[in-house]
Design brief:
Chain A: Its main location: cytoplasm. The complex is a heterodimer. Chain A is α+β, with helices and mostly antiparallel strands. In chain A, about 30% of the residues lie in helices and about 30% in strands. Chain A is globular, with a radius of gyration of 20 Å. The longest helix of chain B has 26 residues, at about 230-255. The chains are: A alpha+beta, B alpha+beta. At the A-B interface, helix 1 of A face strand 3 and helix 2 of B.
């Protein structure tokens, strides 16, 4: 029976979650974007929590899904990077290797019927050529590489926009604008999002994650004015 | 050593009647057969230098490395048996990881060396294991400031302003005592330590050797890093030139 002495229950649903992460591969690197909200169900609980991390000089990571599981992944990665540092062999770990490593971690957890409830977006550059790298791993261990990636609500809302904006020769500077626009649209449409966001860019020069900043938004549409709609006339 | 050869040196779990443990002392002897290693704590960090004697002419530069990193802010220099030293380094890394996992912050140097010393000491207590044939110089920089420690095969741990171990440790210690460590910066210490190693190096016995150096200092952002090769080369060359000049002067005196 459930909850009996021999049974063990694993995470079956996330509680504290982040919404979409989006990423775009560019000619000279990669851009990732995410807002800084971590929700408890539908409650906007932590409004300034970074959902992007800089893994190395050549790699950044963004997550959506359960925050505690991401913290676990984050410390695993930090440990990995310290052993990489101690190796001191001047051979930087490639984003592709980090992607594969995370895929192994996620798939192993899933096979124990205890998945890490996240979707992870890995953005980086190949140190030798400066070519961008963008990949995704989800809670099942599914992993792939793509020119544009979005998770969660972003799959529906941001992905088509990213596809439209993408060109093989798009630069990081242009990509940054596209990502910002996508985050803005997501903020308009996704009820679990917030207008404070971070953007991470990875180029040959290094990986950099901005401080959280506010998106410019406009709400002065006619239909938004008080009294412009029938239901605005309260009957109470 | 009157008790030698009378059966008191067969096991690390046997004391001699004078209260000595010969096996542990032999382990320390194996450190004295190795190239000299020196370390200095300066005003802005710690520097460790190791004289790596080449076993063979054909050995490639950079192999059998004797300076290692165990955490971002902790470096280790090894004198003695290198495989034993690597075991110590692995243990340090393991402990550093474990500390980070439990306490969520980098391990303080003090804690790490304490754990390393306990580990080393354990290997002096049982007949079925061999003691470590190496000493580890540990350089760390944390909230407590720059620190230099040495762990010896006996499990003895001490914190130093400057220390030396290996073949020419006596001579090296005498040289180190002349330094004004409180005023010296790490950059200056690189020159001084190179000079020490060059001066104590016995070129009649060991021809080829490499100078390996690491530092943890303000200049390296308080992280453990190799001292840049140009800096080492420069320091070594200056030291060797000076030594040559002195030798020439001595020859002139003799003549």
């Amino acid at each position: 029976m459930f909850g009996g002495q021999d049974s063990k229950q694993h995470t079956v649903q996330p509680y504290v979650t982040g919404t979409s992460v989006i990423g775009l591969k560019c000619a000279d690197g990669v851009v990732l974007g995410a807002d800084t909200l971590v929700s408890y169900g539908s409650l906007a609980k932590n409004r300034k929590t970074s959902r992007l991390m800089t893994v190395s000089n050549h790699c950044s990571l963004g997550f959506s899904g359960e925050y505690s599981d991401f913290q676990e992944i984050k410390s695993t990665l930090e440990e990995l990077m310290i052993s990489e540092y101690c190796m001191a062999d001047n051979i930087p770990m490639q984003p592709r290797a980090i992607h594969q490593y995370l895929a192994r971690v996620m798939y192993e957890a899933r096979n124990k019927q205890d998945p890490l409830y996240n979707q992870l977006v890995i953005g980086g550059v190949l140190p030798a050529t400066g070519e961008g790298y963008l990949g995704l791993v989800d809670l099942l261990g599914t992993n792939y590489e793509s020119e544009m990636i979005a998770t969660g609500y972003g799959t529906y809302i941001a992905l088509p926009l990213l596809r439209k904006a993408y060109r093989p020769d798009i630069t990081v500077a242009e990509g940054r604008k596209v990502i910002e626009d996508c985050l803005r649209v997501l903020y308009y449409r996704d009820a679990r999002s917030i207008d404070t966001v971070q953007i991470s860019t990875v180029t040959k020069e290094g990986a950099e994650t901005t401080e959280p900043f506010k998106l410019e938004t406009s709400w002065d549409f006619k239909k938004f004015k008080a009294g412009s709609r029938l239901i605005d006339e309260s009957t109470w | 050593m009157t008790s030698i050869g009378t059966g008191y040196d067969l096991s690390s779990s046997t004391f001699s009647p004078e209260g000595r443990v010969f096996q542990t002392e032999y382990a320390m002897k194996s450190v004295e057969n190795s190239g000299t290693a020196v370390g200095a704590r300066c005003s802005d960090g710690v520097v460790i230098a190791v004289e790596k004697v080449y076993h063979s002419r054909m050995m490639m530069k950079g192999s059998l490395r004797r300076v290692h990193f165990v955490e971002k802010h902790i470096g280790v220099g090894i004198a003695g048996l290198l495989p034993d030293g690597r075991q110590m380094v692995s243990k340090c890394r393991e402990e550093a990881t474990q500390y980070r996992e439990v306490y969520g912050e980098p391990v303080p140097g003090r804690v790490l060396v304490d754990r390393l010393a306990r580990f080393t000491h354990l290997y002096t207590l049982y007949w079925h294991v061999r003691s470590f044939g190496c000493s580890a110089l540990v350089a760390a920089y944390d909230a407590e400031g720059p620190q230099l420690y040495m762990v010896e095969p006996s499990g003895m741990l001490m914190r130093y302003n400057a220390c030396a171990t290996g073949k020419a440790k006596q001579q090296a210690k005498t040289e180190l005592e002349k330094l004004k460590l409180g005023e010296l910066t790490c950059r200056e210490a690189v020159t001084e330590l190179a000079k020490t190693i060059v001066n104590v190096h016995d070129s009649t016995k060991d021809k080829l050797y490499e100078l390996e150096m690491l530092w943890v200092c303000e200049e390296s952002g308080r992280t453990a890093q190799f001292v840049p090769q140009e800096l080492i080369d420069e320091a070594r060359k200056a030291a060797e030139d000076e030594k040559d000049r002195e030798d020439d002067d001595d020859d002139m005196d003799d003549a």
